[in-house]
Amino acid sequence: MQTMYQQMDADALAQAIEALRAQVEEVKARGLALDMARGKPSPQQVDISRPMLDILSSDADLHDGNVDCSNYGFFEGIPSARALASEMLGVPAEQTLVLGSSSLLLEHDICGQFWRCGSLGSEPWADYSAKHNGETVKFLCPAPGYDRHFGITADLGIENVPVPMTGEGPDMDVVEAMVASDASIKGMWCVPKYSNPTGETYSEKTVRRLATMKTAAPDFRIFWDNAYCVHDLYDETDDLANIFDYTRGTENEDRVVAFVSTSKITFPGSGVAFVGASPAVIAEVSAFLKMGLISADKMNQLRHVRFLPNLDAVRSHMKKHAEFMRPRFEAVERKLAEGLGGTGCATWTHPRGGYFVSFDGPDGSAKRVAALCAQMGVKLTPAGATWPGEDPRDTNIRIAPSYPSVEELEAALDVLVLAVKLVAAELAAEERA
Amino acid sequence: MQTMYQQMDADALAQAIEALRAQVEEVKARGLALDMARGKPSPQQVDISRPMLDILSSDADLHDGNVDCSNYGFFEGIPSARALASEMLGVPAEQTLVLGSSSLLLEHDICGQFWRCGSLGSEPWADYSAKHNGETVKFLCPAPGYDRHFGITADLGIENVPVPMTGEGPDMDVVEAMVASDASIKGMWCVPKYSNPTGETYSEKTVRRLATMKTAAPDFRIFWDNAYCVHDLYDETDDLANIFDYTRGTENEDRVVAFVSTSKITFPGSGVAFVGASPAVIAEVSAFLKMGLISADKMNQLRHVRFLPNLDAVRSHMKKHAEFMRPRFEAVERKLAEGLGGTGCATWTHPRGGYFVSFDGPDGSAKRVAALCAQMGVKLTPAGATWPGEDPRDTNIRIAPSYPSVEELEAALDVLVLAVKLVAAELAAEERA
Q1: B427: containing domain
Q2: For the segment B182-229, what is each residue's pLDDT rounded down to a tens digit?
Q3: Separation CA A426–CA A373 (nearest Å)
Q4: Does B288 lie in the same domain as B159?
Q5: A189 CB contacts (<8 Å, ≥6 apart)?
């Protein structure tokens, strides 16, 4: 599709650029300092979890059943926290671990374990290249996706291979064809619900195909980061199928390692993280992680489960979060539709949950838009960060609307709209020159 | 030295064995269930940290200076916590990280980093063997020492090499000779104050020699786990020299990576952990750990520093701990002296702090003593656990007196004394047969 600027005659385009540049100068003069860079809740949103802080007072019972949470022991996590993990991950409690404050760290450590030690008797991923003519180990990366995931595998020396998203998850025709024929593809990153940044949820068919597809690598592992499993904006939520329902008892039982954390449920960075997998994978992951950990912070586990004892309680709490998030997502939709609707300059997603909106401008625009926004005082996630390596068409920008107030967000989106228009107009002029 | 049983004539020895066996049967009949296995404080001792739980209530200011501790960010730790880390580690705050709840996990991850990536441009330890005729990477392990340290290096495939302890730290003549000539020795585990399990503190001379010795490996790293830095029993404490005073500004500046945690200051497993090293090493460790962590649990950091704002506050708090630990250590000394003094059957250490007493029985006795204690209802740390690999003379038992009450501890020590006597007597008889 052509942009409105590509359709203008030369004079009109020159006038449009002049007008837009004047607007940009006006905005620069206002000295804005707005941040749409990272998926952080606003301070007021964080405050809804403050009642949790009163639960473990100095006279509280610090036991969970017969587990003393105030002393060493119970590496796997306290029983109530494993029960909650079971509900959130969709596996029995015995197939869960509750560890630390960050699912990202668990993903990092478990991926590093498979790299160094292999999994369930397979050769270490680190040895693959030397044993297979220098062929690099690869990971499939649905893109646009989460930059920190791609960083973990890239840091290990794994080649990140982008796979297109379709609106109902990764393009499974592409995925199936690749994994069926290439044994160097050892795994895949997935954020299956309200995916970062597109906000799409994998369809039942996508989930089933991921669970049942044939892979050339017998030790193929899906890192199933269900970070936004309860992060709905509306009562009518996206439904995600339970991937373990399709792997349980099959030859693919060990394929999926699932992660959830409470970082965006209670206090960011100070939550508890859950892992779920097959009994065999949980056993090997436990044996590995136990080398470095006597037991995790069970006091924080206890604080969490007393505040949020089960999935129903979590869902009620998330409705309070939604009251902060919904007007922000709706402001994004409104401002983008008003500012760019019908211009041919952009498309964007319309998530019903999660933390992000994925925005695409004209080819070759994203880096220039981000730089121009920065000049106007609006910080965006670095353009291209959503792609492993380089965004091939330089179109994608991740919008993180959660942190600013609605007013600040609207101001920031006006800046983004202006930047996209000017860059689109300049691109049209350059194309002609 | 001979045991009293070796000095007996055959009849006396047979009678002694008969009498001891009868006592063992009596004890078995009592159905004891006592635990001297791990360095856990007693529940009453843990309770002295309960006032900390009231500090971060729902209406608390969750800022540390201008850092919002309730949201993402500040990977390196909050300023007040880094200031406390600086005091406890003996390096400037900029050379500290405050991360997670466990120093063991940081040791595990950082050792794994050096294994996979090397340090400051040196080749990865993982590559050493292939490039040097299959020679294994080695770590020096002062022994008896801490089993979980040895587990971390063993798990990486590093060969743990025991080094004798002298009463003022590892035998530095042995250490210096080994590291000077063998480039495959990449590092060393140290618990420099109230060492686990001997309770000895490295002398100033030992610390200086460790800091200044010549090593064949340019990337030699000392993992300086100062776990018991403030864990004194008496007002007159062991003094530990600050090893960084000897490395700062020298060619060995990057040698030492130091660790401290509050696990045995506040709540075991739910504390905060500190790392200190040279600016270059802190930078590379940060870059690595950031791959898997946005930020650590800053709420727990804030809770800790509001409760224990500086080293003086920590020392005052530790005096309360000492009131629980001192009678237990004194009970160990009293019971062992009463039961085994002058028998020639055992020697043991007399720590002025820490969590353990190191006990040595006759050659070939430790496993049998531990098994016999277990039959009598007393659980000890598995015999030999204090050694990397096997305890060569099978003499060493780690006594962990902290968890039981003084009465339970005395009962457990009576059992230990009885077991040592019977095993010593049986060994004397077997020697004669």
Answers
A1: 10-45+315-432
A2: 999 999 999 999 999 999 999 999 999 999 999 999 999 999 999 999
A3: 15
A4: yes
A5: A139, A140, A141, A142, A145, A146, A149, A150, A153, A223, A225
- Phi then psi for B233, rounded to 5 degrees? -90, -30
Task: Give the pLDDT of residue B275.
Answer: 98
B320 with B386, same domain: the answer is: yes
For testing contact with chain A, the best of B129, B291, B304, B379 (most A CBs within 10 A): B291
Distances (CA, A) of B226 to A166, A234, B68, B194, B291: 53, 51, 30, 9, 26
- Say how far apart CA B248 and CA B259 lie, in whole Å: 17
Q: Are strands B63-64 and A34-36 parallel, antiparallel or unpaired?
A: unpaired
Give the gap in angstroms from C-alpha B229 to the nearest C-alpha of chain A: 20
Is B3 part of a structural domain of the chain? Answer: no
The answer to whether the CB of A348 falls within 8 A of the CB of A417 is no
Dihedral sign (CA B127, B129, B131, B132)? positive
- With contact defined as beta carbons under 8 Å apart, do B318 and B235 qualify? no
* Residue A112 within any structural domain of the chain: yes
Residue A95 has which token pair?
């197939």
Question: pLDDT tens digits, residue range B267-284?
Answer: 999 999 999 999 999 999
Same domain, yes or no, for B93 and B217?
A: yes
- Please, what is the average pLDDT of chain A? 97
* Run of H or E residues at A196: none
Q: Does B100 touch chain A (CB under 8 A)?
A: yes
Residue B157: left (phi > 0), alpha (psi -120 to 50), or beta? left
What are A96-140's pLDDT values in tens digits? 999 988 899 999 999 999 999 999 999 999 999 999 999 999 999
Determine the angle formed by the axes of helices A311-340 and A79-89, rounding to 10 degrees: 40
Minimal-distance CA residue of chain A relative to B41: A71
Q: Quick one: how far is CA B382 from the chain centroid?
A: 15
Q: Does A130 touch chain B (CB under 8 A)?
A: no
Closest CA to B402 of B236, B199, B237, B250: B199
B215 within domain boundaries: yes
- Give the CATH number of the domain where residue A73 resides: 3.40.640.10
Structure tokens at B22: 């009868």
**Both B298 and B324 in a single domain?**
no
Find the CATH number of the domain harbouring B354. Answer: 3.90.1150.10
> Does residue B114 sit in helix, strand or coil?
helix
Output Rg (C-alpha) for chain B, integer angstroms. Answer: 23
Statement to judge: residues B228 and B190 lie in one domain: yes
Task: Say whether pLDDT at A361 is over 90.
Answer: yes
Q: What is the ipTM of this complex?
A: 0.96
**Domain shared by B197 and B85, yes or no:** yes
Q: Does B299 touch chain A (CB under 8 A)?
A: yes
Is residue A5 a part of any domain in this protein? no
